[in-house]
Design brief:
This protein is α/β, with parallel strands linked by helices and 81 residues long. It has one domain (3-74). Helix content is 33%, strand content 20%. It has helices at 3-9, 31-40, 59-68, and strands at residues 19-22, 47-52, 69-74. Strands 1-2-3 form a 3-stranded parallel beta sheet. Helix 3 links the parallel strand 2 and strand 3. The longest helix has 10 residues, at 31-40.
Length: 81
């Protein structure tokens, strides 16, 4: 998604949004997902739900999940021993 959409066009809706689900590709490596979560900090009532493979968990993402996380789905797609 182009940054202008979530940084400007959708921003008036943020005070009214209860949940945002981030999925598609691996969100923990996508710059726009991280930038969105930084913006979402200004709206603590907005909860963030994610689907991730958990490959790139770091302190930033753990903070998002602890502070604003609604749920975290862990994808085991193509999982193996």
């Amino acid at each position: 998604m182009p940054a202008v959409i979530y940084q400007e066009h959708l921003k008036p809706l943020y005070p009214h949004i209860k949940t945002v689900k981030l999925q598609g590709g691996e969100l923990t490596v996508m710059r726009n997902c991280k930038e969105f979560c930084v913006l979402a900090r200004d709206y603590p009532e907005m909860k963030i739900a994610v689907t991730t493979n958990g490959i790139f968990m770091n302190q930033f993402w753990l903070g998002v999940f602890v502070n604003q996380g609604l749920y975290v789905n862990v994808s085991l797609n193509a999982g193996s021993k």
